[in-house]
Design goal:
The complex is a heterodimer of chains A (490) and B (112).
Chain A lengths: L1 H18 L1 H21 L4 H52 L5 H28 L31 H19 L9 H24 L21 H19 L15 H19 L8 H29 L4 H15 L8 H26 L7 H19 L26 H31 L6 H6 L1 H6 L11
Helix pairs in contact in A: 2-3, 3-4, 3-5, 3-8, 4-5, 4-6, 5-6, 5-7, 6-7, 6-13, 7-12, 7-13, 8-9, 8-10, 9-10, 9-11, 10-11, 10-12, 11-12, 12-13
Chain B lengths: L1 E7 L4 H10 L6 E7 L6 E5 L2 E5 L2 E10 L1 H15 L7 E7 L17
Antiparallel strand pairs in B: 1-5, 1-6, 2-5, 3-4
Classes of the chains: A mainly alpha (490), B alpha+beta (112).
Chain lengths: 490, 112
Amino acid sequence: MKKNLILRWAVLILLISCCTPLKIAAQTGGTSPQTASPSSATPATNADSEKLNARLTAVEQAAADAKSSADNAWMLTSAALVLMMTGPGLALFYGGLVRKKNVLGTMVQSFAMMAVVTVVWAIVGDSLAFGAGNSFIGGLHNIFLKGVGLAPDPDYAATIPAQTFMVYQLMFAIITPALITGAFAERMKFSAMLVFLTLWSLIVYDPMAHMVWGKGGLLNASLGGRFPTLDFAGGTVVHVTSGVSALVCALYLGKRLGYPKQNMPPHSVVLSFVGACLLWVGWFGFNAGSALSAGTLATSAFVATHFGAAAAAVGWSGAEWLRNGKATALGAISGCVAGLVAITPAAGFVTPMSALVIGLIAGVFCFWMVTKVKGVFGYDDSLDAFGVHGAGGTIGALLTGIFASSVINPIFKDAKGATLPSGVIEGNAHQLLNQTVGIAIAWALGIVGTLIILFIVDKTIGLRVSEEEETQGLDVSQHGEEGYYWETSA
Amino acid sequence: MTKVEAVIQTSKLDAVKDALHEIGVEGMTVLEARGHGRQKGHTEVYRGREYTVDLIPKIKIEMVLADDLVEKAVAAIESAARTGKIGDGKIFLTKVDDAIRIRNGERGESAL
């Protein structure tokens, strides 16, 4: 009877320990010798020590499960946040910047990426980006998500299911081509856009993601790449590739009809404003989620992201105020996006104060790119995909090499496991070279890949809508509907 | 009968309407309009690109009045709509041949 009671108590304690796993997890390290000590004081029977071992194993498992659940909760949230950046975030941001007749045509381009890239990713994209392969691209071992199950892949993230990692990375693969749509806004055929961006995702994005983040990738900093490039959340992979490809698109397609003589102001800065604010919030999933866990690194990336965005909004607005005498709403939100772009490679490597500096520089630099440089060269990067993402991503990746701190993220280690300096300021001058190699490869892949795909699509289905269709607007000519249908009678 | 057309600042509509009611004007048609005179609009800057907005939102009031009311109406509009700055608007007067009330076919001033 008494023995039964003890057993029931033991079960109860085990249950409680499963319910409050984090506390137990913190304790197991320190107190396990203590739990073992009674058995050494009073010699235990084999059965007793076996029971104890079983309990210990159960507690350890509970602790691991708890950490896994916590990490998984944050990573699933982050994945949802990153999807929110594309729709509605980017769709609103870009949709507001175009003329009224193109609002749906522009928004649906982002939405199309949410649908099409997902399908492509499931079939082959994930395998090409994150499957085992060579230095440049993953293999075909994981096509149709073969082997991408609920067990973690310790090479990437040991505490979350491989499918969580897969779906999180998918959200990045969605937004990257969607960013390019800003450069060819208001003039590309819907069909051409679909083919172009699907091919782009396979030919440019997947290899670049593999090189920087994939196992064995040429630029991978944590899995032994030849030129370890620090890119926490996609400064090169996402922003440089998309931004540079955007510039190629703008040059290849040519200007919109009437540009730059005709007035083409944004039809609703209000929509863009809402979109930019959603981007800011979603970016926490983008950057802090790139910690791939819910620990201190995620916090560090979260803070850096926020500080970078804020400082860049101040930088752009300040530059604008000084030059034009007024600070505009569009300037403030453009600055915030530029800062978010620039802090993307750096978050998770830099201190909060470095993040402020990076943001401030990016805000002023992108303002100059968009307002001055674009005008000098005269290309029609309609919504400034290059000026913000290409320029912001490039300067951000360079500044990451300068400001990266091993205190924030001890990513480089010597053979004995001692931490090596990360960035130039810490004494690793070589890192600027590695960053430059990463950036140069992103530029080269973006330019060459985009040119080839554009050429193929141009010669087969044609890239641009006809002049009549362009005048009519993409909403009616491409989709047979209107964003704003005003009834003329009551 | 005279047709009075007044183009005024959008912010002055209520003041002008009240002033006209006070002197006994019973009917008017109000249009939201865009246009410019010597004011020539203003510039807006989007990401460094300057756009000239030369068609500015205005209010146009149209009414046809009996001749003895016209000068009083002009004075009322002038005093209610004037700020003294460029962009206050203009008043145009035109002779009107006839007026017809659709409901009962009345004609002339009694149709107003």
